[in-house]
Amino acid sequence: MPDAQILIQKIRALPPERxxxxxxxxxxxxxxxxxxxxxxxxxxxxxALEAAGMPPLTEDEIQVEVDAIRADRxxxxxxxxx
Length: 82
Fold this sequence. Notes:
Layout: H1 4-13, H2 19-51, H3 59-81
């Protein structure tokens, strides 16, 4: 596992105009981890939902939920940057 200080030194050596790319990549990695955690939670509760007789979500219902979460994250991200 790379040492955090080495990564920080490499980032500091980058030209300023490349820092946005690094930030985007770090955000992407973080979002990927969140998606995987959400999938794990869903797979954990899916049998209980099925046993309770809950109908499966349609693709449209899933997309509505995904869009709402993405919009919320965008608002949160903008609020943290200002």
